Amino acid sequence: MLVKVASTLARVFTGHRDRSRLNVPMASSSTADNQSDSYILIDIGANLTNKKFSRDLGSVVGRAKDAGVQKIIVTGTSLHASKEALRLTQMHPGTLYCTAGVHPHDAKSWDDDTLDALKEIASKQEIGRASCRERV
After folding, report:
1. What's the pLDDT score for residue 3?
2. Taking the model in full, what pTM does it have?
């Protein structure tokens, strides 16, 4: 099942529709509705802050919904990305949620104001706090 879900999500976010290559049937609206009775499909790590999605974010979210994805967690991996992730959630309330944090790969961007800024972002909605630790 995980392979099918991962393949479906890959097709959703890339717009790929060649079912023969992925060996996964496209979910119709009725299929997605029937599946939602038994489980909720959530993408927990979407990098929708990437500039590749800036022109067609609405289409990406729509394709995800059509495939049965009900919630999408947009990952904030830096202060800038966390702010952008929050902005996207405000554009698609009820579908997009976000994390606020600094990924270890972006730790060099951490400065004295980062923690307070992340706390402010986190206060805007109920979001996850990813890789964010207060320095002692």
Report:
1. 40
2. 0.67
